[in-house]
Amino acid sequence: MNVREAVLTVDETQTSFLEQGPSLVERAARTAATAAADAEGVDRDARFPHKAFDVAREQKLLGVMIPAEFGGFGASIHDVTDVCYTLGRACASTAMIYAMHTTKVACVVRHGHGIPWMETMMRRVARDQWLLASSTTEGQNGGNIRASAAAVDVAGDTVSLLRDATVISYGAEADGLVTIARRATDASASDQVLLALARDDYSLKRTLGWETLGMRGTCSTGFELKVDCPTDRVFPEAYDKIHAQTMTPFAHLCWSSAWAGIAAAAVTRAQAFVRKAARTSGGQMPPAAAHFTAAKMSLAKLRALISANIDAFARAEHDERALGSLDFQSSITLLKVQASELAVETVMHAMRTAGLSGYRNDGEFTMGRHLRDVLSSPIMINNDRILANAATSTLMSGVPLSLHD
Ligand SMILES: Cc1cc2nc3c(=O)[nH]c(=O)nc-3n(C[C@H](O)[C@H](O)[C@H](O)COP(=O)(O)OP(=O)(O)OC[C@H]3O[C@@H](n4cnc5c(N)ncnc54)[C@H](O)[C@@H]3O)c2cc1C
Fold first, then answer.
1. Residue 266 has pLDDT above 70, yes or no
2. How many Cβ atoms from other residues are within 10 Å of residue 197's Cβ?
3. Model confidence pLDDT, tens digit, residues 12-69
4. Ligand 1 pocket: which of 225, 344, 379, 386 to mutate (most atoms <8 Å of CB)?
5. N or C: which end of the chain has fewer CB within 10 A?
6. Which domain, by its residues, includes 285?
7. Domains of the chain: total
8. Is 366 domain-assigned?
């Protein structure tokens, strides 16, 4: 079901917005046009892409996934990943911020039904276009999301939490935050809860800057995160369930789509380079044209891999058993590893197609920004960590007996 159909079936009163206004594709394209025009400045100055997010908010992009009954469009996983891809072709930081925000919104949408605070949050995201940030990385724990050091402390109807949040992308710009924490001071590290917080529920004290190779516009600085909030900010469902059913699938699908967008942008530049080179040499292909073919092949593989996983998630999204199956979990976890490696490979081939013109930081064929941005993908939850953790489950999952299993 596409966005328009979802809106029509869920709530007739919501139809006017999309019917009278532009389609979701058009809204994403408008945002991407602004993001592309500002991408170089965002990267150079390591600043938040304000212009792109002003347009995204005008276009109501931040709330597209909120169900129509709470004021959104009820957009599907196919819709939001396509927005990530479109934005990725324009500005990697804008796309990654949108991908992270979408993952947090998905947690609220899929695990917040019937909970008054979570429903309020959905309405605020749709109506006021709240931008939600994420805090999973803590202290020196790297990408070990399934273990938390800081614990929530419940006293009466309030909750407090003090967290050494090593990295919170766009933390200073966000209107709310979704964070994990240990369930209680005497709970084990993996006994975690998830909290969805409004800006008034927490304070941030900056502890680390963000002077990085790429993804500079995500402004992923470190903070001391101090939370004081009502108990209803804590999801009743345990985090392990939310992690498997929503956080991992959405993060991996949306991130991968953003990375595929970066790869596609580099391939577009490589194609323009080959065309120009062939034109100026009487149709003769430049020597590195084979790299262009390799770039196209790895982009095709990347897109096919993401599409297959999006379809698999769409089939299983309301089926707890299917989502929890070893095959699904294994595939969606390894998607992140494969997609990030393929995205880097694609951009490398694209850059080598254009040779020095791609390597330069100036000129119409420069691919320095794309390469720096995409190099964040294997470390954003480090692939080595994922592969080491996945070894047992990979061994346990079966080898398919037919091509269409
Ligand atoms: C652009 C960007 C934005 C981010 N935004 C956020 C955000 O908004 N919120 C947030 O909470 N976090 C964020 N992060 C952090 C991210 O979620 C991870 O925590 C982080 O990327 C992990 O970095 P790491 O490689 O240093 O950590 P680690 O996973 O600790 O890895 C450190 C080193 O140890 C190695 N290693 C680790 N485990 C193993 C293993 N089992 N076997 C072999 N080697 C291993 C790795 O290869 C690596 O060399 C962001 C990261 C990036 C790049």
1. yes
2. 26
3. 444 445 555 789 999 999 999 999 999 999 999 999 999 999 999 999 999 999 999 9
4. 379
5. C
6. 239-396
7. 3
8. yes
